[in-house]
Amino acid sequence: MGTVAVYGLCKSFGKVQAMDGVTLDVPDGSFFVVLGPSGAGKTTTLRAIAGLEKLDAGSVRLDGTDATGDTPAARDLAMVFQNYALYPRHTVYENIASPLRARRRSSSEIAAAVERMSTLLHIEPLLRRRPAQLSGGEMQRVALARALVRRPRAFLMDEPLTNLDLKLRVEMRTELTRIHRSLGATFVYVTNDQVEALSMADQVAVLKEGKVQQVGTPAEVYERPANQWVAGFVGSPQISLLACHAEGDRLVGADGWTLPRPRWTTAEDGRPLLLGLRAEDLSVERRGNASLPGELYGLEPLGDRTVVDVRVGTEILKVKARPTVTGTPGERLLVTVDLDRAHLFDAGTGLALSEAGR
Amino acid sequence: MAVSAHEAVSPGPVRDHTPPARRSGGRGRSVLEVALLTVLAVVMLFPVLWMIETSIKENRDVYAIPAKFFDFKVTLDHFRDVFVASGGGPSTLSVSFLNSVVVAGVSTVLATVLGVPAAWAYSRFGVKAKKDQLFFILSTRFMPPVVVVIPIFLMYRQAGLINTQLGLILIYAAFNVPFTIWMMKGFVDEVPPEYEDAAMLDGYTRLQAFRRYTLPLLLPGIAATAVFALIFSWNEFVFAIFLTSSDNVRTAPPAIAGLIGGTTVDWGLVAAASVVFALPVLVFAYLVRKHLVAGVTLGAVRR
């Protein structure tokens, strides 16, 4: 068993409200990612689960029983810290052995467990070194080994890949997913990297300013963002948002353009809306019946694709195109829109309109 | 194995044998620099040298006019007199040295034992009105001892602490605890709190985490702080002379000062006592010099 649930967590540091009613329910065995920009309260949430943070309000339940007042040791969790927090005066071996020593395991059991971990994470040659003699990637592996050496209720990871270079980060993503699958344990993983969230998670909770914006599978968060902010935060290049309103069977833009009104939207005429269009749902190459007139603003070649910036009225649309696309700024063109994949948000509240009819 | 022509004939990196150009800041210091440093060294060290010379001169050489710098007979009689009374047995000075060792040592241990955990708490925990408390603690050091010595004398008389070693130990500890807290808080701030967080998740209690993983990293800082506290207690004069009266309680500074002021002053004895008094601090500071430097440069330690 390894369920983690928190209810209404509140915590402020001086005038900063780090958590404002955070409620999460992490199912047993899931890879649960808490995603948000820096300062969203992700780390505070993780530290609250670990028992390292005194709460202003709220409760923590582990395996269904209340653990709000328990010490970190009593909660039976393991954590990987963003700066790894390896004990500087101890060898790698002693670092990995620490959780077992604290729990008074026999030295033969400790030796076996450390050996198993060092094989799993390919750090056998490092066991006698000290943390200062390790590279960033090696430290990260040792920190991971120290967490994995025990079988706690759940593993907490605080941006463990942030301090690695890009290549190593991609490798470790695959590695972590593999470890998670082989252990079948509960992971609560904090990151500000949406790629990590989308590629590794079973469930994603998106956090902003101490409030949970949306919880769902990566596909749900990407395809059905609960509000304008989530739509903007998840996805790269960023989603384009155009001010508009419904008028009969048409959507009329603030800049004068018109598009057929998507069938599923129930918004009444005249209500200010935001039309959200992802770069991959737009095209400058295809012909279609729904299109927006604009002019070429700039090209961002990214190797495997080119992002075309198109100015429509006063707004810039980001359009994904093949890497062979060319054009000169100022050139007039039509942007084809896949309206079935478009998003509509209330311009006032930022909330997504009901997509019940979709 | 094939070796390309280029590799085969490559002479290796060309070595440059010309010595680096001598700059004025290098080994060859400018004349002005040497002159200034010499003047400074003489001014700073002359009293020390004179004290050491006087301590090994015979009494008639001490009073010789013109003063003898080099051509005097060396004697260790004064040092014997520091420790051995004229009629045999330990001298009053040796008792006062022992008192100094006890008072300075115990008060330093007390200040460290109280100050280090307090510094840790101020660094790690959200204490109410932390800044105000820390300022209050520091403010006890604003006042010079001589300002508070009369009220303390009256309080001590009520409490029966006048002319006791315990009295001196308490007052020195009271002066050193704020200093220890302030200095140690800086050292604790430098140790990332995540070590303790990690240890608590490993399964240790808060205090075990502190003792196992934070305390060892603080040792250089504790050594540096303790040396400063020890030097304060060892050198302290004002409280010692006001709060003690009998020879068997009195510490070395007032005891040495008491040698001056009779009809005749045995300067050889005063100088020898001063040398003995200065030595322990010098030796102790020398022994922990590595820690002192490490303490001052702790911020450079790799995290």
UniProtKB/TrEMBL annotation, chain A:
A family per Pfam: TOBE_2
UniProt xrefs under Gene3D superfamilies: 2.40.50.100, Nucleic acid-binding proteins, P-loop containing nucleotide triphosphate hydrolases
Domain ABC transporter, chain residue ranges per copy: 4-234
Position of the signal peptide: none
Record's keyword terms, sorted: ATP-binding, Cell membrane, Membrane, Nucleotide-binding, Translocase, Transport
InterPro entries, per database record: AAA+_ATPase, ABC_transporter-like_ATP-bd, ABC_transporter-like_CS, ABC_transpr_MalK/UgpC-like, Mo/tungstate-bd_C_term_dom, NA-bd_OB-fold, P-loop_NTPase, Transp-assoc_OB_typ2
A GO MF term: ATP binding
Protein name: ABC transporter ATP-binding protein
UniProtKB/TrEMBL annotation, chain B:
Transmembrane segments: 31-52, 97-122, 134-156, 162-182, 213-234, 267-288
Disordered: annotated span: 1-26
Organism: Sphaerisporangium corydalis
InterPro entries according to UniProt: BP-dep_ABC_trans_perm, MetI-like, MetI-like_sf
Membrane topology: Multi-pass membrane protein
Similarity field: Belongs to the binding-protein-dependent transport system permease family.
Protein name: Carbohydrate ABC transporter permease
Presence of the UniProt keyword Transmembrane in the record: yes
Keyword Ribonucleoprotein: no
Record's subcellular location: Cell membrane
SUPFAM superfamilies hit by this protein: MetI-like
Keywords for the protein's UniProt record, in alphabetical order: Cell membrane, Membrane, Transmembrane, Transmembrane helix, Transport
Domain ABC transmembrane type-1 span(s) in chain numbering: 97-288
